[in-house]
UniProtKB/TrEMBL annotation:
<protein>
    <submittedName>
        <fullName>NAD(P)H-binding protein</fullName>
    </submittedName>
</protein>
<dbReference type="InterPro" id="IPR016040">
    <property type="entry name" value="NAD(P)-bd_dom"/>
</dbReference>
<feature type="domain" description="NAD(P)-binding">
    <location>
        <begin position="8"/>
        <end position="177"/>
    </location>
</feature>
<dbReference type="InterPro" id="IPR051604">
    <property type="entry name" value="Ergot_Alk_Oxidoreductase"/>
</dbReference>
<dbReference type="InterPro" id="IPR036291">
    <property type="entry name" value="NAD(P)-bd_dom_sf"/>
</dbReference>
<dbReference type="Pfam" id="PF13460">
    <property type="entry name" value="NAD_binding_10"/>
</dbReference>
């Protein structure tokens, strides 16, 4: 019996991917720590519990892999799963990676290399998610409450991408595991965008005035920690903004168009689709 296992199936990208795959008639197993009892193809999956990995893989031949979130050292948890997937004869394994490498997180680079070495292994190196501007992300929460984006990234730009486009690209690889594919794709939106530009677009499209408050990297790290992020991850994520400010993350690719046949959504389109999000309560 063949089908696709979607780890992180209840997350932003996973949920969108499950919908695309099921609409295409692909049997899709939704894996997560708290599976939906009403979904017969939902199954418990926990990176910290290897006993859940085998049952999740059983009866599938393709995998969408979302590594442990908020971790600077995910490889120790993912590596046993990769070995099990190889033994299970998985034909296509697509990992949601990141175009941004967290400081002091070398195992993320090694993990991507391990995935590319798998039979049918593909890494999608996604840029920043446009959905970070939606609650409950800390960025979105502050916009909603205070009409303000706090950032240490200055006027630096990032190739923000809509997770619906990531899901569409992943689906193109997973629907047909025999299709030719590269082992690595840079997944971005159509252009680079700074936080001040994002604020201007939200203001223009929704009528909700959004300001930008420039803060230091240390202040950003403290805000991330206050939101509940693990301290090490919060510090690394704040340090990413230094790279954005210095222009090191201003990269744009054509993978969405290559994989789906259509260009990625613009941030203005994303804001129009979610205009209700920034309304005052």
């Amino acid at each position: 019996m063949s089908g696709v296992l979607v780890t992180g199936g209840t997350g932003k990208t996973g949920k969108a991917l499950v919908q695309v795959l099921r609409n295409a008639g692909v049997r899709t197993r939704v894996a997560g720590r708290n599976p939906d009892a009403a979904d017969p193809d939902a199954i418990r999956f926990d990176w910290n519990d290897p006993t859940t990995h085998g049952p999740a893989l059983d009866g599938t031949d393709r995998v969408f892999l979302v590594p442990p979130v908020e971790s600077v050292d995910p490889l120790p948890l993912v590596e046993p799963f990769l070995r099990r997937a190889r033994r299970a004869g998985i034909r296509r394994l697509v990992m949601l990676g990141s175009a941004i490498v967290l400081p002091n997180a070398p195992s993320a680079v090694e993990m991507a290399a391990r995935v590319r070495a798998q039979p049918g292994g593909v890494v999608l190196r996604a840029s920043g998610f446009m959905q970070n501007f939606l609650r409950p992300h800390p960025l979105a929460e502050h916009i909603h409450r205070h009409g303000e984006i706090r950032t240490a990234a200055g006027d630096g730009r990032l190739g923000w991408v809509d997770v619906r486009d990531i899901a569409a690209g992943a689906a193109a690889l997973l629907v047909d595991p025999g299709a030719d594919a590269r082992s690595d794709y840079l997944i971005t939106g159509p252009c680079g965008m700074s936080y001040p530009q994002a604020a201007q677009i939200i203001t223009a499209r929704t009528g909700r005035e959004v300001r930008v408050k420039r803060i230091t990297e240390k202040e950003q790290a403290a805000l991330y920690r206050a939101s509940g992020m693990p301290p090490e991850f919060a510090d690394a994520l704040a340090a990413v903004e230094r790279g954005i400010k210095e222009g090191r993350e201003d990269r744009v690719g054509t993978a969405v168009l290559e994989l789906t046949g259509r260009p990625p959504r613009t941030f203005a389109e994303f804001v129009s689709d979610h205009a209700y999000e920034w309304a005052r309560e």
